[in-house]
Amino acid sequence: MADPELVDVVVVGLGVGGEEVAGRLAEAGLSVVGVERDLVGGECPYWGCVPSKMMIRAANAIAEARRVDGLAGSAEVRPDWAPVARRIREEATDTWDDTVAVQRFTGKGGRFVRGAARLDGPGRVRVGERVFQARHGIVLGTGTRPSVPPVDGLADTPYWTNRQAIEVEELPESLLVLGGGAIGLELAQVFARFGVRVTVVEALDRVLAVEEPEASEVAAAALRADGVEIHTGVRAERVSHDGQGFTLRGAGGAEFTADRLLVVTGRRAHLDELGLDTVGVDAGRRYLTVDDRLHVTEGIWAVGDVTGEGAFTHVAMYQAGIVVADVLDHARRADAGADPSGTASATGGAAGSGAGGSARAVPRADYRALPRVTFTDPEVGAVGLTEHQARERGVNVQVGLARLPSSARGWIHKAGNEGFVKLVADADEGVLIGATSVGPAGGEVLSALVVAVHAAVPLARLRQMIYAYPTFHRAIEDALRDMS
Ligand SMILES: Cc1cc2nc3c(=O)[nH]c(=O)nc-3n(C[C@H](O)[C@H](O)[C@H](O)COP(=O)(O)OP(=O)(O)OC[C@H]3O[C@@H](n4cnc5c(N)ncnc54)[C@H](O)[C@@H]3O)c2cc1C
Fold it and tell me: Is 339 a residue whose pLDDT tops 80?
């Protein structure tokens, strides 16, 4: 076996989070090895956010064109998937080729290694026969893969995950979507708008079950209006494929058939593949447990979906900023001969003001105002706690809700104006702790609510704000009024 190669940092997995960390550390002058077994950039640009939002953009254009009738004359729409597939292939993914992304990383001074990496004892990472010894740290950004439920027969069928759904060149006539979460609903609506007969089967009693019930209702109604059949409270019991199509049998005997089956029932990290036992970390958990500086254990950080703090690109990017600051802080301390663990500075000790730099400059992760958007039409944006979560935590909850169709802008907008703003406040503190914004621009309206939750803006100040007329976000003012 070759001697280990000494480097400053090894980043395992160059998805959104890992690529950001590796690139910025390399730009800062550290010797960084980035290891990726698949495509640099990860799920988001190739099979996730970017291509799915291109699909949604196209599907929404169709929906808007269909709204011309009654508003602006008449329009004939003939959906065609070819330009969408071509755009994903050519503009988004370079036909699933990461040459540009690799060059982006190496252009910053990083060293790229293609392969599957695992930990190989403290400070060491193995990729095949090569072993790297990291002086300052290892960052794990290995993400998640689809979690496929143990439904009888399913594993033997040619079901789709998000990857096949994104790569599809020719649409099927009919599609079963197992899972009514954000990804399931986004893709179901897209395919339905392109003429596919779509059926969503969800085990829980409502779609988008993590969001407010009012959001589930609006989203379900919108999809039904697009022709999507939605069956909630149906647990899949058996799946079969006869060479032509799929049959899904639910508990209670209901049967659903379609040409294709898309399984979008969540995602899971594969910690068992990472050699965590060689550094004394439990691989039996669902996600890597991290502290508020994304530390897993001495010398190891994690970033992105693998931390289980929210499976969003913006969470991975946010965490990456903290990891970069903390690794650089550790490197400075180590180079200055100070306490590299940062313990002394974190507790206000002398090392914090020493030559190694101050750990107080390293931000701590705070997910109180974590935003999330489901890009259905209408969009479902949410931040912080739902009303139910707040009540479960024993908060003295105050709620306000305003429906968009009865707002000035919603009334003007007419076709496609479904939505609402719902506010959840801590009445004792007089601040918002959660909010939901559903509507044609639900994800954009959300930004004001994120600021309010993040900065704990007093309700009294929010009530004194001037809200531009006639915007969708004026519904925030209406919801505040509904609260008092
Ligand atoms: C259909 C879909 C739509 C989405 N839409 C949105 C959206 O609109 N907005 C949003 O914020 N998020 C969205 N997401 C989620 C987003 O894609 C993820 O949150 C994001 O990709 C997480 O980045 P990551 O770096 O943690 O992991 P990933 O992007 O999964 O990257 C991890 C990388 O690590 C590599 N890897 C794993 N193990 C090893 C190993 N042992 N050795 C070497 N390499 C390894 C993998 O090959 C992968 O490239 C969507 C996801 C999907 C599936």
Answer: no
Q: Is the peptide bond before 378 cis (omega within 30 degrees of 0)?
A: yes
Residues 6+ apart with CB under 8 A from 422: 212, 214, 215, 387, 399, 400, 401, 435, 436, 437, 479
- Residues facing 371 on adjacent strands: 383
Our answer on whether the CB atom of 450 is closer than 6 Å to any ligand 1 atom is no
317 lines ligand 1 (CB under 6 A): no
Residue 194 has pLDDT above 90, yes or no: yes
Q: What is the mean pLDDT of residues 254-258?
A: 97
Cβ atoms 180, 207 nearer than 8 A: yes
Of the candidates 155, 141, 186, 461, the one whose C-alpha atom is nearest the C-alpha of residue 311 is 141
Q: Tens digits of per-residue pLDDT, 429-441?
A: 999 999 999 999 9
Question: Residue 3 burial by CB count (10 A; 0-12/13-18/19+): exposed, middle or buried?
Answer: exposed
pLDDT band (50, 70, 90) for residue 442 = very high
Measured at the CA of 467, the angle between CA 463 and CA 468, to 5 degrees, comes to 170
Ligand 1 pocket member 37 (CB < 6 A): yes
Contact 187, 164 (CB under 8 A): no
Q: How far, in Å, is the centroid of ligand 1 from the Cα of 268?
A: 11
Give the Cα separation of 314 and 175 in Å (integer): 30
| Ligand 1 in reach of 35 Cβ (< 6 A) | yes
Over the stretch 89-106, which tens digit does the pLDDT of each residue have? 999 999 999 999 999 999
Does the beta carbon of 142 sit less than 6 angstroms from any atom of ligand 1?
A: yes
CA distance 383 to 231: 27
Q: Are 39 and 96 in contact (CB under 8 A)?
A: yes
In contact, 240 and 159? CB cutoff 8 Å: no
Q: What is the pLDDT of residue 3?
A: 87
Q: Does ligand 1 have an atom closer than 6 angstroms to the CB of 183?
A: yes
Do 473 and 403 meet the contact criterion of CB atoms below 8 Å apart? Answer: no
Q: Using the mean position of ligand 1's atoms as its centre, give its distance from the Cα of residue 42 in Å.
A: 5
pLDDT confidence of residue 400: 98
